[in-house]
Amino acid sequence: MRLGAELRRLREATGMKAREAADLLGADSVQMSQIESGVAGVSAERVRRMAAHYACTDEALIDALAVMATDRTRGWWEEYRGRLPTPFLDLSELEHHAKRRWDVDFLHIPGLLQTEDYARAIFSRRVPELPQSEIELRVRHRMQRRVILEQAEPVPYEVLVHEAALRIKVGGRVASLAQLARILELSEADHVTVRVIPFELDDFADITAAMVYAGGPVPRLDTVVRDGPHGSLFIDSETQLGVFRTLFRRVEGASLDPARSRDLIHRLAKEL
């Protein structure tokens, strides 16, 4: 779907109609529509031909799109297909391909840092209530997502979490202590950076934008995921991506450095 969306953007940037592009490729408008909507696949060779017709000279972008066209990865998340909502699988696949990850959260510990007990408590509070079997399925899926931080070549990960999220006792005192210990453990890894947004920060109301930011092979292929009342929203327009990059850097600049963040988390653990 993302490949199709990018090909459509390239075509639209030239002012070319879908029918005109189809004619240049020896295809029909129905096939072009299916490619651009992600219903039908497209070969790497055809992607390069389309880029040439659209006068795209960004070689890095073209190469990345060609790789997307040939990728047929069926990852661990496929075992959950038909058992969990599609956005869960989409997020797992997005993380699998990400070159870097940024998280910002204010009321909850980001999913990649969560312990089983913390995740179970979060899913158990959902309204309407979930069956216990689905709660356990979601917890298992969330724990498997951590593979991107634990694999041989882990993804660089920077997380900005508000002090409020660290103080809220999700699952009780014992679970909260274990959660803080987990964050401290991960923060020691070279590829993980944890920064805390402290309560003492002044004038913070205008930059409270929780997000998951997944970096693509080129900046244009980055993706932001935001949770809304009706599910997850995947954002990939260049303008909006630029806005979220700016917001992340603004929040990053207002947060504590990693050493001071660890000191604060240690103090909060002692207070529990």
**Number of E-type strands:** 6
Number of helices: 13
Strand order of the largest sheet: 3-2-1-4-5-6
What is the succession of H and E elements? HHHHHHEHHHEHHEEEEHH
Mean pLDDT comes to 93
Q: What structural class is derived from the secondary structure elements?
A: alpha/beta
Radius of gyration (Å): 21 Å
Residue runs with pLDDT of under 50 for 5 or more positions: none
Q: Please tell me what the overall shape is.
A: elongated
Portion in strands? 5-15%
Main sheet record: 6 strands, mixed
Helical fraction equals: 40-55%
**Amino- and carboxy-terminal Cα gap:** 46 Å
A few lines on this structure:
This protein is an alpha/beta fold and 272 residues long. It has 13 helices and six strands. It has a six-stranded mixed beta sheet with strand order 3-2-1-4-5-6, with helices on both faces.
Secondary structure elements and pairings:
Layout: H1 2-14, H2 18-25, H3 29-36, H4 44-53, H5 59-70, H6 86-97, E1 100-105, H7 116-124, H8 132-144, H9 147-150, E2 157-162, H10 163-167, H11 173-187, E3 192-197, E4 211-215, E5 223-228, E6 231-235, H12 238-254, H13 258-271
Parallel strand pairs: 1-2, 2-3
Antiparallel strand pairs: 1-4, 4-5, 5-6
Helix pairs in contact: 2-3, 4-5, 7-8, 11-13
Descriptive account of the structure:
By secondary structure, this protein is of the alpha/beta class. It contains 13 helices and six strands. A six-stranded mixed beta sheet has the order 3-2-1-4-5-6, sandwiched between helices. α4 packs antiparallel against α5 and α7 crosses α8. The model has no long low-confidence stretch (mean pLDDT 93).
